[in-house]
Specification:
mainly alpha, globular, 2 domains, 165 residues, Arc Repressor Mutant, subunit A, single chain
């Protein structure tokens, strides 16, 4: 892939990949960071990306792995804070969060990723299996369980009838 082709690839896919990672991660800034870092890594491998034939999937996978590495790092840092007994104060999420993002955040990471790959990235079960290294049956299980959990989380609360109506 030439420099110009890579730049065109970036222009055509960066926003889409950021949106996909946002759904997977539930954090826009984190999604932007990992997608940008994945493109930096892709820049150094642009000739190989062209030969492999799926540069978008490669960038998405690298971005996901970067996010997982960051989670692990933050988890180790939180464990260290816990051991030291001094946890920093953190402000909770505001009420403006979108119900879907909140529902997705409640899912296990693999279910959330699988749901995003299927519904946001429009990948088939087989493509998801290839990208994540899971079997097709595991992907299907994540989709079924993720849909069921989201349906439960996103139900409207029951409307109580007004007295005397």
């Amino acid at each position: 892939m030439t420099v110009e082709e890579f730049e065109d690839f970036y222009v055509q896919t960066a926003a889409r990949l950021t949106g996909q990672l946002y759904v997977m991660l539930g954090d826009l800034h984190e999604a932007q960071d990992v997608v940008q870092e994945a493109f930096v890594k892709g820049w150094n491998r642009r000739r190989q990306l062209d030969r492999d034939g799926q540069p978008e999937a490669w960038i998405r996978t690298v971005a996901w792995r970067l996010a997982v590495s960051r989670w692990r790092l933050r988890r180790r840092a939180a464990d260290a804070w816990t051991r030291s007994g001094a946890l920093p104060d953190a402000e909770g999420p505001g009420p403006e969060r979108v119900a879907l993002v909140e529902g997705l955040r409640g899912l296990p990471a693999q279910q959330r990723r699988t749901m995003a790959l299927h519904y946001v990235c429009d990948l088939t079960v087989e493509q998801i299996a290839g990208e994540t290294g899971q079997s097709a049956s595991t992907v299907k299980t994540h989709l079924v369980r993720g849909r069921a959990a989201l349906a439960h989380r996103l139900q409207d609360p029951p409307i109580e009838e007004a007295a005397g109506a």
